Each structure stands twice: as structure tokens, then as C-alpha cells.
Amino acid sequence: MLRPLLRLASARPALPLSLLKPALSLTRPFTAPSPLRLKEDGNRTPEELDAKKHEQLNKQKKGENHWDEGLASSSESQIAADKEEVGDHGKHMEELQKQTAGQSEREHPEGKA
Asked: Where is the region Disordered (predicted)?
């Protein structure tokens, strides 16, 4: 007579099933966004950099110096672009699109339709 009673007791958990399940729906996993990093590229030879440096120093002595994007790293170019003041946003976007299209055509002439 005890045997059926023990079998019945072991088949039923002591706590409700909702308390036995892990509370996955109530917690969110902790994630942090990956940091945005600016690329420091250097596809220029030391001779090119030295020639540009002397060219800029000569222009600086004459008072004609200006910022050369060709010498800048990607991160310096991005920061300069972020700081650029734009008067007419629509016109500026059109100019940038034309520059991008022209650069793409120069780099990939076979892709021109």
C-alpha cells in the first residue's frame, strides 16, 4: 500500500513548474556595444611622406600652406570632415556624391556603364 503512494509523491514536484524554470524571460543578457575605432592606415612610403613634409614646410614658409588630406590618416580625415562647417546641406551632399562618383570612375574605369 505504501508503494503506490510513494510513486505518486515522487511524480509530483514540490514546487510549481513556473518556479522551477529559469527566469530567462525576465532577464536580459548584458551586452556592450563594440567601441568605434578609427583606422590608422599607412599605405605611404617613408620617401613619399618626407617629400610631402618638405613640400608643406616650403609652402608654410611662403604662407601658402593648407591641410593635405593625402597625408592624413583615415581617422584624421574623418575628424576633419566632422568639423567641417556646411552652409547648404543639400548642395554639399550633391558635391560629395559627385566627388564619390568621380573617384569611383577613376579607380574602376571598367565598371563605368
From this structure: 25-113
